[in-house]
Amino acid sequence: MEEKDIYILAIESSCDETAAAVVKNGREVLSNVISSQIDLHTLYGGVVPEIASRKHIEKINQVVESALNEANMTLEQIDAIGVTYGPGLVGALLVGVAEAKAIAFAANKPLVGVHHIEGHVSANFIENLDLKPPFMCLIVSGGHTHLVVVKDYGEFEIIGKTRDDAAGEAFDKVARAIGLGYPGGPKIDKASKEGNPNAIPFPKAKVEGSPYDFSFSGVKSAVLNYLNRAQMTGEEVNYADIAASFQHAVVDVLVEKAILAAKEYGFKQLAIAGGVACNTTLRAKMKEACDKNNITLYYPSPIYCTDNAAMIGCAAYYEYKKGVRHGWDLNAVPNLKLGER
Ligand code: KG4
Ligand code: ZN
Fold first, then answer.
1. Between 20 and 30 A from 307 (CA), which of 102, 233, 235, 338?
2. Distance 262 CA to ligand 1 centre (A)
3. Whole-prediction pTM value?
4. Cβ(127)–Cβ(23) under 8 Å?
5. Same domain, yes or no, for 67 and 27?
6. Are residues 88 and 179 in the same domain?
7. Same domain, residue pair 143 and 290
8. Residue 258: closest CA among 159, 154, 169
9. Do residues 97 and 165 share a domain?
10. Ligand 1 mean position to 332 CA, how many Å?
């Protein structure tokens, strides 16, 4: 007997994008609507939580409506409502969770809460139909830097993480220091193309005794010290060289550790996920290293790397299939642990 198609309406509002999507059978995106608040937060050099929550409230209804319209579907045709309930900014998460609960209750549909990072990992399933667990995954976002074994859909073993700043956070802080503004990742990516990655030897942090853990506060401080020193001595600095050299230091560590983990754990499939997975140098360097080691590299298109609801719809589908259902008491959990339900 052929299995019935499952349609998920998914909502994401954990940070500064208000997003909704309709996803069919966990892999096919029928609509993916994102209302970004970036321009608003750029004025302040970073995300202002209060403003983020208020903007989510303003936008969420129309974003959900557009997602249904673009998918050419009615709420009645939807099988379940998926929503990010953590981790993230509590006020921002609450808007999505309240919306999802209201819709699920009113339309009498099951509610499936999703971990934001499980969403990022699942973004890889959208365009890579051959990718199935188990595989190794490097998650690099604004809030997380994790090396995980994806044992099954929604089942993770974290083998390494950052001891301090997340990779994206380091990009954002360095970008701010060299005057590129927010969000820093894409701007450093672009500026680096004009710079020399070997101009300044910024440190590539190793964590003693933990081959899969990361630390990015050292390289960030090294950039700040470099800038201060130059300012005191009146030396001219080349911002493109700083951007390229910083990026080089971060990317080298990410590639080295991800490849080491894939090899040590015996995986021939490596995926990267999260906003920093957009980084063109990371993609190129990781691809090169994977080719050399006979590993297949997977990454989502940029639109599915940064925050979106399609990835939440993918993750919600696999949770739904497993029988996960949340009650009307579902709450936002700002520090939700990966793998917790
Ligand atoms: O996954 P994401 O959209 O949100 C979180 O869950 O945190 O990631 C956002 C992060 C930001 O720190 C942003 O600067 C970074 O991803 N990012 C990039 C690039 N595009 C976005 N970092 C490096 N290179 C990029 N091209
Ligand atoms: Zn994210």
1. 102
2. 23
3. 0.97
4. no
5. yes
6. no
7. yes
8. 159
9. no
10. 22
